[in-house]
Amino acid sequence: STGDEGGDMRVVLGSYHKQVTGIEWTPGEPAATLFAFTPHLASVKASACCGKYLATAGTDETIKVYNMEKLIDLGELHFHNGTITSLGFHGTSHMFSAAEDGQICIWRTRDWERLTSLDAQEAVLDMSVHSSGRMLIATYRNRVIRLWDLVKGRCSWKKNLPQRGEHVIWGCTPETEFVVAAGNTVSCYMDGEATFTLEHEAPVLAMVAIEQFSLLICGTADGKLHLWDCTDGGQTAVLRAHETPEHLVCRLLLEKKKKNP
Predict the structure, then answer these.
(1) Quick one: average pLDDT of 128-132?
(2) Of 159-163, 179-183, 233-237, the least confident
(3) Which terminus of the chain has fewer CB atoms gathered within 10 Å of its CB, N or C?
(4) What is the pTM of this model?
């Protein structure tokens, strides 16, 4: 989310060179580096933030957790036996981690205890937690997409995709239930079937759905941002965001920070 007027924005970048960098920006002022350090032993492949918490993970099979309000390291979480490919939060009470070991772990943020794991015995490529906290959708290396019932702790639906789903997010309109990116192609699904397909000139590296405007924004390897209408699959705009693709950035996180009164 972007900061309100009078607030500032924090951007966290993770790199293939093990580094995590935090940048703070206030409208009308130059950006300032909050921190830059090397918390991991290998490439940073996943990151997520919610409220005061920031988590990063990667090929060293370790999750690092930080308090962004106090800018302190809260410690490490260990369980996965493989590269951690995706992190996510539901509110500030639970964190989810997925890895190439086939496990999706659910962590309680109060004491950082691992509550349970969802195991499909196949490498997880990406996952997305539903806003209700009752469902989770995940894509796997064997081209399967699974819908997990978080209340019952079991897979309630699965489907073979035509291509390996590298990124998945929940949709933001009644016409789009979830969205899957595979290479240059983004497919929007409803009731388990593809409703329309969005083609790009370069591989899709990241996606975000904006419910307020029924928009899907896709960032591609050629440095462009593609804006799509989620109601009919029409392209709204194409923006040139960067002159060259930035391969070092694993994930861009925006956190709104309110100024002290």
Answers:
(1) 95
(2) 233-237
(3) C
(4) 0.84
Length reported for the chain: 261
Cα–Cα dist 165/155, whole Å = 18
Give the full edge-to-edge strand order of the sheet including 113-119.
84-90, 94-99, 103-108, 113-119
- Cα dihedral sign, 138-131-45-185: positive
Q: Check the CA dihedral 240-245-246-250 and report its sign.
A: positive
Q: Which residue, among 261, 260, 258, has the nearest Cα to 8 in the 3D structure?
A: 258
Tokens of 141: 């290396």
What is the predicted pLDDT for the residue at 252? 36
**How far is 23 from 91, CA to CA, in rounded Å?**
23
Any idea of the CA torsion for 90, 94, 95, 97, to the nearest 10 degrees? -100
For residues 199 and 238, the answer to whether their CB atoms sit within 8 Å is no
**Which whole number is the average pLDDT over 193-218?**
90
CB atoms within 10 A of CB 242: 12
Split at pLDDT 50, 70, 90, the class of 120 is very high
Biggest distance spanned by C-alpha atoms of the chain: 53
Q: Residues near 261 by Cβ (< 8 Å), separated by ≥ 6?
A: none
Rounded CA-CA distance 135/152 in Å is 10
- The answer to whether 67 touches 74, Cβ cutoff 8 Å, is yes
Task: Please name the residue that has the structure tokens 């959708």.
Answer: 137
